[in-house]
């Protein structure tokens, strides 16, 4: 089985992920969590790896803060979008960003060639990997002893629940399998406890946990007429870490550290 390369869908992917309301919710929750992670690592420039980071949404934000960032992706088209956005920023602000690009699958990353990192991001990648456990396990070896691993993955149980409340009972009964895969539908969604087991085997513990889109995807209509989008963001941030609602997140975000 082949891991997903988004070259043919690069522009659509870049637009859909963070250029939509659901993308803004995702960005708000994950960025809140990452700012917590940065406080754990001290007030200093950090060496950061964004593994499978696409066009580098968070890579760019972190580089603008003065951190040294390496963006790795299998898609040359996604990296081209990143380079174009960074070039525009540098021209507009007359400020160079310390960001390095690696065009390769994340399985090619290794300590001998790339060294260790204070913080590694791996967001919305695991659910596209044919062997997520093996790939992520190797990736964690690139984290420095007191460094952090930011892992966000597509939540299979939330995927099931969403389809249940949508009345897609035949789809659920078929084990969430369809004859024809939609381009941006993850091929290998994961269970939360499955990932917790991996982290335990890797001697890592979570220092922060959030559900991403614990409300948005379950709204009866896209946006209630009597509410504002800012209210939705506030509620997502408020309930994303509540133990009753975290497992409903379409994605789950863990920030992990070596024990």
UniProtKB/TrEMBL annotation:
<dbReference type="GO" id="GO:0008757">
    <property type="term" value="F:S-adenosylmethionine-dependent methyltransferase activity"/>
</dbReference>
<dbReference type="InterPro" id="IPR033664">
    <property type="entry name" value="Cmo5U_methylTrfase"/>
</dbReference>
<protein>
    <recommendedName>
        <fullName>tRNA 5-carboxymethoxyuridine methyltransferase</fullName>
        <ecNumber>2.1.1.-</ecNumber>
    </recommendedName>
</protein>
<feature type="binding site">
    <location>
        <position position="123"/>
    </location>
    <ligand>
        <name>S-adenosyl-L-methionine</name>
    </ligand>
</feature>
<comment type="function">
    <text>Catalyzes the methylation of 5-carboxymethoxyuridine (cmo5U) to form 5-methoxycarbonylmethoxyuridine (mcmo5U) at position 34 in tRNAs.</text>
</comment>
<comment type="similarity">
    <text>Belongs to the class I-like SAM-binding methyltransferase superfamily. CmoM family.</text>
</comment>
<keyword id="KW-0949">S-adenosyl-L-methionine</keyword>
<dbReference type="GO" id="GO:0006400">
    <property type="term" value="P:tRNA modification"/>
</dbReference>
<feature type="binding site">
    <location>
        <position position="26"/>
    </location>
    <ligand>
        <name>S-adenosyl-L-methionine</name>
    </ligand>
</feature>
<dbReference type="InterPro" id="IPR013216">
    <property type="entry name" value="Methyltransf_11"/>
</dbReference>
<keyword id="KW-0819">tRNA processing</keyword>
<dbReference type="InterPro" id="IPR029063">
    <property type="entry name" value="SAM-dependent_MTases_sf"/>
</dbReference>
<dbReference type="Pfam" id="PF08241">
    <property type="entry name" value="Methyltransf_11"/>
</dbReference>
<feature type="binding site">
    <location>
        <begin position="52"/>
        <end position="53"/>
    </location>
    <ligand>
        <name>S-adenosyl-L-methionine</name>
    </ligand>
</feature>
<feature type="binding site">
    <location>
        <position position="73"/>
    </location>
    <ligand>
        <name>S-adenosyl-L-methionine</name>
    </ligand>
</feature>
<keyword id="KW-0489">Methyltransferase</keyword>
<keyword id="KW-0808">Transferase</keyword>
<dbReference type="GO" id="GO:0032259">
    <property type="term" value="P:methylation"/>
</dbReference>
<feature type="domain" description="Methyltransferase type 11">
    <location>
        <begin position="49"/>
        <end position="150"/>
    </location>
</feature>
<dbReference type="GO" id="GO:0097697">
    <property type="term" value="F:tRNA (5-carboxymethoxyuridine(34)-5-O)-methyltransferase activity"/>
</dbReference>
